[in-house]
Amino acid sequence: MDYRFQTASSVVGGSHSIRRLNELMAALHSPSHVLILTQPSMIRLGHIDTMTRQLDTMRIAWHVHDRVMREPTLDSIYDICDEYSGHSFDALIGMGGGSVLDATKLLATLLVERIPPARLLQSGAVCRRGLPMALIPTTSGTGSEVTPNAIVTLPEEELKVGIISPFFYPDIAILDPVLTLDLPQSITAATGMDAFTHALESYISNKANPISDMFALEAIRLISSSLLPAYHHARSLEDRERVLLGSAYAGMALSAAGTAAVHALAYPLGGSFNVPHGVANSMLLTHVMNFNLDAIEDRLIPVAAAMGYHERGGDTQSPAAWVLEQITHWTKEMEIPQSLTPFGAKPADLERLTAAAAKVTRLLNNNPKPLHTSDIAAIYNKLMPLT
Ligand SMILES: NC(=O)c1ccc[n+]([C@@H]2O[C@H](COP(=O)([O-])OP(=O)(O)OC[C@H]3O[C@@H](n4cnc5c(N)ncnc54)[C@H](O)[C@@H]3O)[C@@H](O)[C@H]2O)c1
Ligand SMILES: [Fe+2]
Asked: Which pTM value belongs to this model?
């Protein structure tokens, strides 16, 4: 079996690790002018202040851009690039959810070389390192801080696409669970299910390998034991830390093995109906796994064990049935929408969604069972209860 594994050059973790700015600046090759990309919540919560006060002490100039769009469009990334193209930044820090981290990866490249949008979307377009970058996740999460992927929305195509480059691994990833203590319940739920989906899809991927398996199973163990506690007790630092670490491990697993049909079918839901990425995955997860079931039953035995099948009295059911029941229980408990109706989708949209998902061959090819268009349509149909 062939496999390769790569991750962020350096990973630093632990409570208040964003205060270890000396280490951060060394990893960024001691910059003199830093652009910080973030979202307004990080300013409101005082986390950006914690960074900039230290930068002042170190006499490093900085600028904060807090208008990174949620699930950014490609155009919005070029707008930021145009805004700063005349500046002399020599490093970037992205502090936020996956939206900010992905935007930071793209800007690190585009501020050095303004690759035209049509070319950027072709594979292999990013073929040299951009500005040094630090990625600091504040959701748990996409795992983007350790992956080579940057996902953008293409509204005109009603789709999301992944731009992938080994140059998108950051110089340093910082896992500070304190940043996640104020995550609202709905975002804890959706981003936690995204992380769990990364782990599960990597584990059943056609490209699964010994390295991705190790990270995937540990991610499943950490997330399945601490996601509901973190949802119910937002300020439980121990649970927040486990889910954050789990999401990074899940990112490492997906870097090595790729996600599969759940993510492929989720992209058109984000692109057409703005369904948040984690909600889209969570809606699709059990339906796609049920479709895959005969091909993955054996793989779900270690997954069930990592989720506590024996300790938690699952043995009255098969491991596969118990895993799917647990996932259904989590989504109900965390009140994650399980239908497209509240997002405005109608049965008439089915054909268009199906055609869009069928194009995501990069991920569909990783799925353990091939999906024909009729299979994709049947899965989407389950999210439209009126048909
Ligand atoms: N690069 C990858 O490997 C990868 C993997 C999966 C998903 N993604 C992409 O990442 C994006 C989604 O990222 P996300 O799910 O992290 O959400 P997000 O970045 O869109 O953030 C969601 C919301 O949470 C808020 N928020 C973030 N951190 C907070 C905190 N600590 N406290 C309070 N509010 C906070 C943000 O301001 C935003 O309003 C999508 O575009 C998705 O496609 C990328
Ligand atoms: Fe994801």
From this structure: 0.98
